[in-house]
């Protein structure tokens, strides 16, 4: 063999083994990831509340409907705005009559995959959450379910729409059906992301930095809580396992979390582990919105949950991975429906 | 000729003359209408604020942006919701810190065709309106323009977006440019309706009832004020020419209208004549939202402006005509943009 040819051969072999090595690394990373995460399903249907087109479309109208609130200013979309990925960008939401909510508004996107709703798990499902919001003072603020339903009943169009969505009921405009319709709509709001594409076999869906971040996320222990289809949303955990959370977040108030729901000392500072889907699009962070940026939130979590101080490079990679959880806004969420008006009735 | 054939011929001639008579009537109605109305243009561009793609897109983001308000709850879209055809369905809007606005929020759709903005004409243009809203207490509620701009400047993404929309300026994040960007976006929000199709020559665009309503609208005098491309929005007029308006509307307060702006006795109870485009989609009606339905509003107008009591049939026809002014929501309005987030910056 002449020298240039031998050199080319060696070079070719080297490139090949690098490429094959990279591919093997991707396969190995994917296998590890598939063990702890799952790609998003097509929807989040449940046997308790079957998704019919009439129910989902009614739920979509009701999601954008402010006229069922006590002062006419609050719809689901007020605190869960499409333009802000289903959040309001506030540390704590402000609802009916300008009342402050006790905690940060999480995104409604992919919310149906969580095992319970609300930061303290005191709502069992998206349906339960939507129904009880009607009478929560800092949410829709109505004095009773009946007063909220009376407002809806007075808007021409809704009686027919409810009757179609809930056939065979004498009076279908009820708070339970309000929750079922909005819940059904919410169960359609899935946001498949580059990470799902990677899980399904597309090596190019994640950048090298995101892949490094995913590796870290699994290695350093984030995955202990943030796992499954929601990358979180599947269990409760104490916020501040290693260190009091408020020392790292600078929170102005100490929230006792699930303890205030159960009075069980084991629940002190326990919250639902939030799903991290679309987390890059939904600052500020934590139950009290006390941290403004994702890199800062990542540092806080490593410190108070895992007792680790991350390097700048680790933070950047983890943020790249978390950004790969940003999906596409569903069309039926980004695009507002045309609500019924009272115009044509005398 | 045998009898059946003769009968057929007579019948054919009769149908033909009815059809031709109807066509002639349509032509005549269209000619009358073209004398007083105009079809919507493609956009509402102005030499003062040229529509560039970068400016319009920035304006669209800012339209949906709540973070520039004093409490983070008010965007243009809060009181001018896409799902409610650019209104909030309230008699009077509720803005920052739950402050009540003095008057009803008109739709932003086609608003740029009006000769002035606001019910009393105290905003010269959509740009002027958008800028001044930043510091109006019941609107965005900021203590100063500078404090509002500081909020925008702190959101990664906006400095670049403003620089692109307003090239060659050292600091382009200004209240004036906020108004220009939102104004440019608003000037793209046109909603061509069945009435525009009729004006352009499509006889089938209007129902017989809508055609009868259009004829009445011109004959009984509505057109004296509601004319031009906006079917209104081109002049001032006293509300209550024949009779005090509050006696017909049941308004709880008497608004002196433009008088409070100019102190000119000739301006007592004078308001801008609103554009009637999309009027069927934007209850409640009048400057104070005192009337809930369109038929009731039509009766009030006939009574206090023209001294007429309309029959039920006349009201129904007029409402049919007004419903033909409902256009299609522009895609860039119905669909929310993805706002910049603070996520990825450390």
Write the layout of secondary structure elements.
2 copies of one chain form a homodimer.
Chain A: H1 3-36, H2 53-63, H3 76-79, H4 126-133, H5 145-153, H6 158-165, H7 175-186, H8 194-199, H9 208-219, E1 236-238, H10 245-249, H11 259-262, E2 270-272, H12 294-306, H13 312-323, H14 331-334
Antiparallel strand pairs in A: 1-2
Helix pairs in contact in A: 1-9, 2-6, 2-7, 4-7, 9-13, 12-13
Rounded radius of gyration of chain A (Å): 23 Å
Shape of chain A: globular
DSSP helical segment count of chain A: 14
Record field, number of beta strands of chain A: 2
- Strand proportion of chain A: under 5%
Quaternary status of these chains? homodimer
What does this 3D model show about the protein?
The structure is a homodimer of 346-residue chains. The first copy, chain A, has helices spanning 3-36, 53-63, 76-79, 126-133, 145-153, 158-165, 175-186, 194-199, 208-219, 245-249, 259-262, 294-306, 312-323, 331-334; strands at residues 236-238, 270-272. By secondary structure, chain A is mainly alpha-helical. In chain A, helix 1 (3-36) crosses helix 9 (208-219), helix 2 (53-63) packs antiparallel against helix 6 and helix 2 (53-63) packs across helix 7 (175-186). A two-stranded antiparallel ribbon of chain A has the order 1-2. Chain A is globular and about 90 Å long. At the A-B interface, helix 12 and helix 13 of A face helix 12 and helix 13 of B.
Structure at a glance:
The structure is a homodimer of 346-residue chains. Chain A has 346 residues and is an all-alpha fold.
């Amino acid at each position: 063999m002449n020298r240039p040819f031998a050199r080319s051969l060696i070079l070719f072999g080297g490139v090949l083994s690098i490429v094959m090595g990279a591919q093997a690394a991707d396969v190995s990373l994917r296998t590890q990831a598939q063990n702890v995460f799952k790609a998003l399903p097509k929807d989040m249907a449940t046997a308790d509340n079957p998704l019919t087109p009439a129910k989902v479309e009614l739920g979509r109208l009701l999601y954008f409907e402010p006229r069922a609130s006590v002062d006419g200013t609050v719809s689901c979309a007020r605190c869960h705005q499409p333009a802000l990925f289903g959040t309001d960008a506030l540390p704590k939401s402000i609802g009916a009559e300008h009342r402050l909510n006790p905690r940060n508004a999480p995104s409604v996107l992919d919310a149906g995959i969580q095992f319970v709703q609300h930061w303290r798990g005191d709502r069992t499902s998206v349906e339960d959450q939507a129904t009880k919001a009607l009478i929560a003072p800092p949410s829709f603020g109505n004095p009773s379910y009946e007063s909220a339903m009376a407002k809806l009943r007075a808007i021409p169009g809704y009686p027919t729409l409810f009757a179609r969505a809930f056939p065979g009921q004498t009076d279908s405009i009820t708070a339970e059906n309000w929750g079922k319709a909005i819940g059904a709509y919410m169960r359609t709001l899935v946001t498949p992301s580059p990470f799902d594409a990677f899980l399904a076999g597309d090596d190019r869906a994640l950048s090298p930095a995101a892949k490094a971040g995913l590796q870290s996320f699994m290695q350093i222990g984030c995955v202990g809580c943030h796992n499954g289809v929601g990358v979180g949303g599947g269990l409760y955990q104490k916020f501040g396992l290693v260190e009091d959370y408020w020392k790292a977040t600078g929170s102005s108030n100490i929230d006792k979390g699930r303890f205030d729901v159960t009075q069980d000392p084991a629940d002190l500072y326990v919250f639902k582990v939030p799903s991290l889907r679309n987390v890059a699009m939904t600052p500020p962070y934590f139950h009290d919105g006390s941290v403004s940026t994702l890199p800062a939130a990542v540092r806080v979590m490593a410190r108070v949950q895992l007792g680790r101080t991350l390097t700048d490079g680790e933070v950047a990679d983890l943020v790249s991975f978390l950004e790969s959880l940003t999906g596409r806004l569903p069309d039926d969420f980004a695009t507002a429906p045309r609500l019924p008006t009272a115009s044509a009735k005398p």
